[in-house]
Amino acid sequence: xxxxxxxxxxxxxxxxxxxxxxxxxxxxxxxxxxxxxxxxxxxxxxxxxxxxxxxxxxxxxxxxxxxxxxxxxxxxxxxxxxxxxxxxxxxxxxxxxxxxxxxxxxxxxxxxxxxxxxxxxxxxxxxxxxxxxxxxxxxxxxxxxxxxxxxxxxxxxxxxxxxxxxxxxxxxxxxxxxxxxxxxxxxxxxxxxxxxxxxxxxxxxxxxxxxxxxxxxxxxxxxxxxxxxxxxxxxxxxxxxxxxxxxxxxxxxxxxxxxxxxxxxxxxxxxxxxxxxxxxxxxxxxxxxxxxxxxxxxxxxxxxxxxxxxxxxxxxxxxxxxxxxxxxxxxxxxxxxxxxxxxxxxxxxxxxxxxxxxxxxxxxxxxxxxxxxxxxxxxxxxxxxx
Length: 386
Known about the structure:
The protein is of the alpha+beta class. The chain is about 50% helix and about 15% strand. It is globular.
């Protein structure tokens, strides 16, 4: 795949902005208030082909890369929307495209690209394992030509709006492997046929994220739905996690620039004591500092995306991009809230809604403290901190 030129990337951004203009603040406020899935918005994105941007043209997708995918999600959030409603269909491609069989790709990717099939859910996190993925307890027991899944997952989003779930489960007991990262396998679970053996329990959170606890009680998954070799799933899932972190960084950047756009506009027109508040250093300098940090985080995201697209190891860059973008977005969120003052708490300005959404990326999909420990150990060569 040839790298996209700057002009082409701007065309992607412009087209996404045009689509998002059809779904303004009133639409997103209604979804938030009603705790409703933005079905119309996701359908429009699907129809326009933006959710299949990473799927190769051979399978009906756009065949573009992480830079373009990141631009799509960034522009959605910068417009005031929430790309989290549909981002999993992008980052699950990291594992499926790189490690799925040709038969699996031909079975699922054209249907996903056409919008007839949704892969919108990613099942890794568990109640007791948390960030320590190697300690997960969900098991997949082999029974001839299928596996039976038993266990619990938590904070698994969009299950009610997905046909397929990408799942990480243990196929070899922890005590029987040499390294903790061994013995884990990745599966594609067909949620449409899971039946009563899968219990879905919604978890209400501070954002409209439709997340759930899942209880697997013998859900059957055909062997041909396993991605790659048995026991190598942790390595495979890292491809998806790196993609996820680059894309989450893109969403955080979109949030951050949303706050800057709105706060700068407000600071220009809001007059107090006979002058626009943006003339005051106490307002202007924090906005400028937040903008600088966002631009720096954008460079880190771009570097991570370029390495990922080139097939190079991008774990360090993906982690750093996610950290820097989420911290910069949260800084911008607080600056915007301060700039708007009391009006920042008013629902009609959209600041409070996006403020809640921006806080999520500090702790998910990986907490920023864990990224600091990763950099300390794997980049700086310091002793492991946990």
